[in-house]
């Protein structure tokens, strides 16, 4: 396809692969999540598994899992299965986790074991980002509505206003975790039979495209 901007051949090997960091802009809010979690003392906050076990299979660090949950909350990813899929295809999530992709059961178990600590950390993160205007390009779902992070009224902090805001944030986080639990309980996986038929459908699609192109040339 001459005279068009062309992408790379998917099957072509590259000698010098691009840095993963190049795919995430310097002003991307996901960087705030990364810095925030890396600065926390997760042990004091009550997270389970901060100290690695001497024996057995290595586990994911709670910091990685917490970043995943904060990102999911900000972007309203409502189930552990969807969080698992985002880890495999979402470049922001791939960057945030360092290309780790925990399975949905591991993600769900982390929520079950650390629900209270996750709620408290999410609350503090959202409150801090609002105060510092770190979520300029993002919004957080609270009480069913979108409240932009930058608002002139946000500059006027009073004890009563902060209390109301934190209560609303608490309700939003609790609602999100409840949605996660419900989705995990019912499951939202794509049926295996449907996945197995996908390749066949793609081949039939290719055949149909050939047929349609032949008709168009008549």
Provide an overview of this structure.
This protein has helices at 30-38, 62-74, 80-89, 91-97, 104-132, 159-186, 192-217, and strands spanning 139-142, 145-148. Helix 2 (62-74) packs across helix 5 (104-132), helix 3 packs across helix 4 (91-97) and helix 5 runs antiparallel to helix 6. A hairpin with a 2-residue loop joins strand 1 (139-142) and strand 2 (145-148). It has a two-stranded antiparallel sheet. Mean pLDDT is 77; it is low at 136-155. The protein has 218 residues and is mainly alpha-helical.
Topology:
Elements: H1 30-38, H2 62-74, H3 80-89, H4 91-97, H5 104-132, E1 139-142, E2 145-148, H6 159-186, H7 192-217
Helix pairs in contact: 1-2, 2-5, 3-4, 3-5, 5-6
Give a quick rundown of the structure:
The protein has 218 residues and is mainly alpha-helical.
Low-confidence parts: 136-155
**Percentage of β-strand residues:** under 5%
Mean pLDDT: 77
Shape: elongated
- DSSP E strands, number: 2
Domain Transposase InsH N-terminal: 19-112
InterPro entries: Transposase_InsH_N
Organism: Bradyrhizobium retamae
Protein name: Transposase InsH N-terminal domain-containing protein
Structure keywords:
218 residues; elongated; 7 helices; mainly alpha
